Amino acid sequence: MKEPREELKVSAQRIRVIDLETAGNGANDVCEIGWQDVALVEGRRWALTNERGARFVNPGRPITADTMAIHHILDEQVADAPFWKEVAPSVLRPEGGVVAFAAHRAAFEQRYCTARLTGGLPWICTWKCALRVWPELPRFSNQMLRYLRMPEGLVHEIGLPAHRAMPDAYVTAHHLRDMLNAASLEELLAWSAEPGLLPRVPAGPDRGKGWDRLSTETLIGYLQDRDSDVRFSAQTELTRRGEMETQQDLEPAQGSLL
């Protein structure tokens, strides 16, 4: 199926969506990087551009069976590919530059796309932002958002196979586009710098309840939770009620799967 092309003039304000596939959990285990750009067109709305792609990366080690079962990339496909230090600069420092990077659950990509490689540019986490923009949705994984929302213009075939770098970046970019057209870039960056604001309790006896339905005593109990997203969400509700003057500093985390 032919993808409709964006004919409007693209401004210099461009965000690159990144998705990585890896050989395991090591610091240099990237075996594929994919990207899809989203840009402000004619200064009035955000849209996907035709700039997208993917490159294999030699991880320097065999790909584990666990990760092959997710992305189906084989050792022989990456054996002759360049190493991460050779691939990353060309993708993360594109001609014309970008103002930010984005990824779904961006903490994973940030483990490999370090500040040294990206020039210290900020990141948007589309998972955290989806919690804010579409709190009514029941789940927030990249593929669930795809089918719950059915974003306009998403060509089904280009977004497949799932769990490959370019198709996943392409799907994420549609969520990012819609978020940017619903909220400001500054808001998305601010939300991404905080823990996730969960719309509902993710687990336990209160699972599925909105935080506003919980007693103050219950909320205070959640301040001891191991998950910083849960702690942050409970603190936010207590602050909204005026029962907590300031929120404690919490290390951003993305541990809750919704």
Helicity range:
25-40%
Helices and strands, in order, run as EEEHHHEHHEHHHHHH
Structural class by sheet pairing and helices? alpha/beta
In total, the number of strands is 5
Shape: globular
Strand content: 15-25%
Separation, N- and C-terminal Cα atoms: 32 Å
Which whole number gives the mean pLDDT?
Answer: 92
Radius of gyration: 19 Å
Total count of helical runs of at least 4 residues: 11
Spatial order of the strands forming the largest sheet: 3-2-1-4-5
Describe how the helices and strands are arranged.
Layout: E1 10-22, E2 30-41, E3 45-56, H1 65-71, H2 75-78, H3 84-92, E4 100-103, H4 106-112, H5 115-118, E5 123-125, H6 126-133, H7 142-149, H8 165-180, H9 185-192, H10 216-222, H11 228-240
Parallel strand pairs: 1-4, 4-5
Antiparallel strand pairs: 1-2, 2-3
Helix pairs in contact: 6-8, 7-8, 10-11
